[in-house]
Design a protein that fits this description.
It is a single chain. This protein is α+β, with helices and mostly antiparallel strands and about 90 residues long. It has one domain (about 1-85): Nuclear Transport Factor 2, Chain: A, CATH 3.10.450. It has helices at about 60-65, 70-85; strands at about 1-10, 15-20, 25-40, 45-55.
């Protein structure tokens, strides 16, 4: 599989990350939502914790959509897919 786009968006203490890969005929999407939390390590103040993670093929989005309860993540996904379809990366 060939990675064609990797992007991230920060909103306060939350980071949204998306990776879009392509095989011969289909797009594979990896979504992550990370949240800043206090680190338990003495030398670090904060660390990022994965609070949502989902991987799926583009055609399966209808089945996955209900699992994504964050409107910002949904919008970020939609904007990124438009970029990929218009080859704006």
């Amino acid at each position: 599989m060939n990675e064609i786009l990797s992007d991230r968006k920060n909103k306060g203490n939350v980071t949204y990350r998306i990776v879009v890969s392509e095989d011969a005929t289909r797009l594979f999407i990896e979504l992550e939502k990370l949240m800043k939390v206090r680190s338990k390590e003495a030398d670090k103040k904060t660390t990022k914790k994965v609070v949502f993670q989902k991987s799926f093929y583009y055609e399966e989005f209808c089945n996955v959509k209900d699992e994504i309860d964050d409107p910002i993540l949904l919008q970020f996904y939609s904007d990124t897919i438009v970029k990929v379809q218009n080859h704006e990366f």
